[in-house]
Amino acid sequence: MRDELHESDTRSESPRSPGRRAFLRTGLAGAALAAGAAASVSRAAAEPTPVTEPLEIPEWTRTMGRPIPPEMYGMPSKYEVKVVRRRSDVFVNRQNWSDWSMSPLQYQHGIVTPNGVFFERHHAGTPSIDPERHRLVIHGMVKRPLVFTMSDLMRYPSVSRFHFLECSGNTLTDWTKAASTTVQQSHGLLSCAQWTGIPAAWLLDEAGLQPGASWVIFEGADGAVHTRSIPLQKVMDDALLAYGMNGEALREENGYPLRLLLPGWEGNVSVKWLRRIKVVDRPAFFRSETARYTDPLPGGKWRQFSFVMECKSVITYPSGGMKLPGPGLYEIRGFAWSGNGTITAVDVTVDGGRHWQPAVLEPPILDRCLTLFRYRWRWDGRPAKIASRAVDNTGYVQPTVEELSRVRAVTGFVQHHNGIFPWEIAPSGEVKNAVA
Amino acid sequence: MRSPRGWFALVALVVVGGVVVGTTGLAQEPQLGRPSVGFGHPITEQAIAPWNIDIRTSDGAGLPPGRGSVAEGQKVYETKCIACHGEKARGGPMYGTMVGGINSFTTNQRILTPGSMYPYAPILFDYIRRTMPMDRPGSLTNDEVYAVSAYILALNGLIPETAVMDAESLPKVRMPNRDGFVPDDRPDVRAVRCMTDCPPIGAAR
Hints:
The complex is a heterodimer of chains A (436) and B (205).
Chain A lengths: L16 H14 L4 H10 L14 H4 L36 E3 L18 E3 L12 E6 L5 E4 H5 L4 E8 L16 H5 L2 E10 H8 L7 E6 L6 E5 H7 L1 E6 L2 E2 L9 E3 L12 E7 L14 E2 L5 E3 L7 E6 L10 E10 L5 E7 L7 E2 L1 E3 L8 E9 L4 E9 L8 H7 L15 E3 L5 E3 L3
Parallel strand pairs in A: 3-12
Antiparallel strand pairs in A: 1-2, 3-4, 5-6, 6-9, 7-8, 7-12, 9-10, 9-11, 13-14, 15-16, 16-20, 17-18, 17-21, 19-20, 21-22, 22-23
Helix pairs in contact in A: 6-7
Chain B lengths: L3 H14 L23 E2 L2 H4 L18 E3 H11 L1 H4 L28 H4 L4 H10 L10 H14 L8 E3 L14 E3 L22
Antiparallel strand pairs in B: 2-3
Helix pairs in contact in B: 3-7, 6-7
């Protein structure tokens, strides 16, 4: 049931939305209600008229369900068709092979993003790699160059860790103007999973580092042969060579059969379809770390190797494109995350930032992982501007766009937008992007 | 399932007995850290060579033998690149311009091209060889990659029309944005956690 979500975006209309709207128009007496909806509405009204219409016994109660389906992999209900990844409506590419699609954060329950809607970005399409033929090599400044099959890799003891992944360009369309309609479009290059794999340090130790080794090149096996240079210290600290994701093998669009996972760092460094690790003594300065994934600064310079995704949060409910049915109690909720550690606080404003109240953080609160926050709010039906502000365990407080724009060139193809992101609620209940 | 008491006995046995030996089936291996196994197989650099394509772009280390002129590059470009990138690399149906933008970074209209953005010319070789043409990545010969690199550099006014690019000449091309990068110095803002009577969001923009 998704009664709380009322997207005005017609292309994402749920099959059941018209029924809900009809109910809102006709009120209690005329609507045939499911029991749960009746209960929630009756609590909101002062002296509700009792439901007199006998409860329906629908066809699914009067017939047999499906037998075991021929395809044994379960799929979401057909009534959940709007919960899908989407390309950006703001920044539309003229091709689909170096492109991205965004997670429907407004529909995500809990901190784990389902694999089928985990955001993805690729530079030459999604390859379909045969794990039997896939190989990982480690070479360069090592004592023993090594090659691994996927079977070799899966014989090692494994570790599983929950971490968010966020594209450096997440929210880039919404610096100076409110371009995105929904939180999927403004923040959907963000997802979170439990990753399973092998610490990269184990395999580098096995290969044996040579003196002077200080950077590591990671390279993908896709048609873009995507490549990044990573400081050795990060690799030895917590880099994971992941083959599992939320209890199953990686999805192809997320790197099947093997990817790098660098916790807390911008998504593109977690190289997918990983085929090669080369230990070196300095970065290679690839196109992907000079002409792309660098940040414009005032005066014409570019910030480079800006890996960490700093502390950020966003309200996912209510959020852009939704329509609140009327005044009353709402649970404002959303996600907070920090590439530098754990979330220690999230504050919520409902008056455009003049006053803030601490939200409730829901356990588990994990290192470099999405953290769910909740804040109960009784909306009086007047215009409101709501936003969240996260604090992490380094003491860093999520800044406003105004604060960021004082030290960054907030123009062009800007990365690492972690500014506070407000939504405006009109008396009609319509929720709109209010970032600028 | 093992009872808490059973786990305690196991831990006590390991602690008291040090390394447990024999065929008891009890834990013998360290339970944390790198396991004392190695499933990697040795491989020679020669065997890795087909994948070993990264160029250290700051000095061109790793650039292969071969050569290509601006004129040869134009021919390759007009056959294999023009469909997406447009005539004279000024942008096409798929992608924007790859020419111009030098000195645009102090304006609000930053134009990102290989000429304006790349700090080192061998980035052209590394990137074109690994990714281009998009529908047949890796299909260009090294000579063709040198030639297309030369053509793009010439279109950006960075080398003469008569130039030939190879492992020696390409790293010597002086790129305008060579000193355009600074290391990550974030956190670059220090926001305050104001709770009451705060400046509204969007104020003083």
